[in-house]
User: Fold Ribbon-helix-helix protein CopG domain-containing protein from Acidithiobacillus ferriphilus.
Amino acid sequence: MSRSSHTQRAQHLNAAFDLLAQGSSLSEAAERMALRFSLSRRQAYRYLQEAQEIQHPVSVPSPVIPVTIKISVDVAEQLRAYARTSGLTIGEIVARSVTLFLGPPGESRG
Assistant:
């Protein structure tokens, strides 16, 4: 069985949270989660246990895709150094930078 993506995990956790908020019992919620998401009951219970510990639904991240780019060695070294010191991944840094450069979706540039 493959691992769920970050997006799927957030969706499962939010579904568990919703079922508990609606007053479903643990066994009923586990059964519904198992059927809806093709999970084992054991995995459904894990999501439910985690959902009991949060105060509100979690944000669902956008799916990611790999992108290959060519940049100068100097920029690559700066990027790696910044990633090491910031604790962010190179992908997170690039995504944030590009988003800031492009501006909000739908906004005209130029």
Notes: The mean pLDDT is 91. Residues 99 and 105 are 9 Å apart (CA to CA). The first helix runs from residue 6 to 21. The radius of gyration is 20 Å.
